Amino acid sequence: MNTPKMDPLADSNCPTCGTSNFSPRLDLEAEVMKDRFRSEYDPTSCAEIKETLSLLDKDYEGYTSEITRLELQIRSLSSRLQLQVEALLFRQGQLPNEIIMSIFNYVSRNNLLRERRHSKKHSLRWLNRGDGLTAIPALVLSSVCFRWRGIALSCSAIWSRVSLVLDVERSAESQGFLAMVKLYMERSGSSSLRLIIKAVGDNEDGLLSLPALLLIGQHVHRLQYLTLHSPLSCGMFFLPNATIRRFPMLEKLEYYASEDEEFQGVESLQVFGETSSPKLKSFRINVDIIEQFSAISLHQPLHQLTTLDVVLLEQLDNLDRIVEFCPKLTSLL
Hints:
Number of strands: 8
Structural class: alpha/beta
Helix content: 25-40%
Number of helices: 9
Order of helices and strands: HHHEHHEHEHHEEEEHE
Oligomer: single chain
Strand content: 5-15%
Largest sheet: 8 strands, parallel
Strand order of the largest sheet: 1-2-3-4-5-6-7-8
């Protein structure tokens, strides 16, 4: 019977840094060991068996020592990490609230509230077929410490930039998702809202009954920037449950139809007319609506626009129509 090979470095330490070079003396997965375990007892191998058992005992002691060493190392690293965290918090504690608030404002440019956060469905992933932001920075910052929470709650603007991904095929939204939308609306106070809304699915009736959208409808008077990504044509332009059909703060409106959608409801833009949206200056839509301009009277929002981004489909003869309906344009994209 062959004697198992011993590792000459077992139980030795690195001569330079003193760290352990422990490695087991016996490889229990080796074929020679498996054969030995399966073989019958041979009185002539008694000495070799005792030697193997002795090596196993030493390996056991080595494993125990190595576990103890690693546990001590973990505690040491944890202690160092805690010291570094405390030092970092101490330094930020010396910063004035105005600087911290500026940092919060920079970091919290968008808060993504996704109805099904871990969905693998392609249509429920975020814009440009990417996952987009997975963090909700305003909520995270407000959870760091007592001081940061106070600063975050006093800065309503960081709660007012929200992106929503809604699933209109579901019969009901989760209570957690709805509570999160409500939390952001409440903490945004009276700040102007910058909303990006993406509706997924073909159930237009389901869209009008979504609790999150009904909640947003109560705050349309605070909308400053509104971006809609929807396969539902003009349905998303009519935010339900709006207490008033006025958008006094709205400055920029963007609408992105799905790739196979033909926009047929340009008249629905009347809800954003001059009387209801006196500050609307910028409008963007990714489908061709030039042929439908004649359906909109001049008292509608077009003539007050200064920036217009539409699909012309190389129809340069429509430029005259654009200038006619949008005489204040300074930018045509």
